[in-house]
Amino acid sequence: MKIKFGSKIYESDEKTSFLNLAKAIGIDVKDLIAAKANDKIFDLLSPVPDTKEIELLDFNNPEGKKVFWHSSAHMLADAVKRLYPDALLGIGPSIDEGFYYDFYNLKVGDNDLKNLEKEMEKIAKENNRFERIASTKSEAEKKLSNEKFKLEILNDLPGEITFYRDGKFEDLCRGPHVVSTGMIKAIKLLKVSGAYWKGDSKREAMTRIYGISFPSKEELEEYLKFLEEKKLHDHKKIGRELELFEFLDISPGSPFMLPKGAIVYNELERLAREFDNKYDYKEVITPLIAKVDLWKISGHFDKYRENMFKVQPFESDEEFGLKPMNCPFHVLIFKSKTRSYRELPLRFADHGVLHRYELEGALDGLLRTRMFQQNDAHSFVSEDQIEDEIIYMLNELKEIYEIFDLKPIFIVATRPDQRIGEDELWDKAENALFNALKRVDYKFTVKEKDGAFYGPKIDVYVLDFTGRPESAYAASTIQVDFNLARRFDAKYIGKDDREHIPVVIHRSILGAFGRFMGIILSNTKGELPLWLSPVQVKILPINDDNKPYAKKIFDKLKENGIRVELDDSNSTLDRKIRDSQLEKVPYVVVIGEKEEKSKTIAIRDRSGKTKYNVNLDEFISDTKEKIEKRAKV
């Protein structure tokens, strides 16, 4: 059997536990967290199953991190029960960065986290072994008689029931876990927030505690520095400070775009329209609601109904749905007349408003919302056009990404277990994605079983400010769908004068405009390029005498289509400059007696550099050119 650890491969046929096997082949086991075999993660103390290959996981492995953080969540629950024995346990999963645990009947705030951290550190020093304990359902019910949320989980559990014990604490869990609590040497509890049990606002309000942990204190210190930097890139904080958008409880998960935010949003939409026009997409506008029959035909009603909003007219039993996607509407437009092969590829673009019911706990500023518009399009093609059309879409993506200096990461997501359509069609769809990426020589990785229920896809991620692939943002997608047109009986007349079913390629380059806006705000810390900035130039007269000349400059810039503001308040010049810096304005024009006499302007850019005696017409011409070319300034 092959044993993989990091970049090294070992060979062994020894039948023992994963931990003993690692020792036998000479691996330093103090850093090992778990093992993987037959696509399943195991405790290190578990016996090695019949397999041809195993992988040993440490903290450098993403799956190893998840085990480490899930074990840390158990330690948090142990600490809470020690200090607050009346608290009831909910769930405690690992997340992308760290872990959380939900509790009921626990009244704590951020000021209480230090005491919980100390208790967790005490548990770590005890070095209690995580023991896996198999249980019958009746035994489990007795153990959990005072834990109503765990009992609810127990009643939904299929198959084997297991607990994990560390010291005196036991928790219902399928595992796996690290060998002992002593492996978790650095812990930081980050915040307390609220959540509803199972994400249902009609259920109990829980107290959620978030945390992070590491194998060493040095790694924790490095992470805490990263968190400080991350705050400067938080698009929600930037959005508030720059007065771009708001979120209000009256409509959870639906952004209110303020005047400046609407400018940024509309500029992104204008960019999308410009490229859609360049790449021969025909824009359509489709209804916001439709009878649920539409989504029953498309298959979304069965697979996606929990994410849809139901709409019902007053005094009527007829059910409608708010549209969560545009694709079924585009098929209806395709079907609205007889189509010929000469029309293919036929490309429809749609920026209509969409609504999806995301759980409240999943909402994340502009990055995950319930209401959004996206740079959405669908191409109707013949089978022999699929690869070329995918490459056509990738070319558009390349052009747009270059404007923002974004580095794409391509991931092909293949057929999920729950899907519609024949395997033969899935084979064709997946091969088309693979072949197209190979033809343009783009590197990609494969994510098995992560495709949509109707077809495989290329998901395109972009790096965030850290440059780490594991924290990249999902931005764009290209999806090949053999099933949608077939379900609607949409056809075109081929060269042979016979009817054929088109293939639908779903495509979104900018993704949701709000989400893309959030990504750009985060990556730039709000210092948007000149063409995208809501205020491109701010004019600051030094005193009252300079205000008339400043107003003339303001008018001239505005006449030339430059987004400009005039700060003629009575604040000091230093205060006005500081306000402009906080507002991330690309250019500040300072007007004093010297500028007025020479009929010139002084320009201060975002870096703090100032140019004097600048000719106004030259500045206007240069600025308009940069805006028109969408220069990266």
Key features?
34% helix; BirA Bifunctional Protein, domain 2; alpha+beta; nine-stranded mixed β-sheet; 4 domains; Threonyl-tRNA Synthetase, Chain A, domain 2; 633 residues; Ubiquitin-like (UB roll)
Description:
The chain is an alpha+beta fold and 633 residues long. Helix content is 34%, strand content 26%. It folds into four domains: 2-58, Ubiquitin-like (UB roll) (Roll), CATH 3.10.20.30; 63-232, Threonyl-tRNA Synthetase, Chain A, domain 2 (2-Layer Sandwich), CATH 3.30.980.10; 245-523, 2-Layer Sandwich (BirA Bifunctional Protein, domain 2), CATH 3.30.930.10; 530-628, Rossmann fold (3-Layer(aba) Sandwich), CATH 3.40.50.800. Strands 16, 21, 22, 23, 24, 25, 26, 27 and 30 form a nine-stranded mixed β-sheet that branches. Helix 2 (62-83) packs across helix 3 (113-126) and helix 7 (235-241) crosses helix 15 (513-524). It is globular.
Write the layout of secondary structure elements.
Elements: E1 2-5, E2 8-11, H1 18-24, E3 34-37, E4 40-42, E5 53-57, H2 62-83, E6 88-89, E7 94-95, E8 98-104, H3 113-126, E9 131-135, H4 137-143, H5 148-156, E10 161-166, E11 169-172, E12 186-196, E13 205-214, H6 217-232, H7 235-241, E14 245-246, E15 256-257, H8 259-278, E16 282-283, E17 289-291, H9 293-298, H10 300-304, E18 310-311, E19 320-322, H11 327-335, E20 339-340, E21 346-350, E22 353-355, E23 371-381, H12 386-404, E24 408-413, H13 423-439, E25 444-447, E26 457-462, E27 473-481, H14 484-487, E28 492-493, E29 499-500, E30 503-512, H15 513-524, E31 537-541, H16 547-559, E32 564-566, H17 573-582, E33 587-591, H18 593-598, E34 601-605, E35 610-614, H19 616-628
Parallel strand pairs: 1-5, 16-21, 20-28, 24-25, 31-32, 31-33
Antiparallel strand pairs: 1-2, 3-4, 3-5, 6-8, 7-8, 8-13, 9-10, 10-11, 12-13, 14-15, 17-19, 18-19, 21-23, 22-23, 23-30, 24-26, 26-27, 27-30, 28-29, 33-34, 34-35
Helix pairs in contact: 2-3, 7-15, 8-15, 12-13
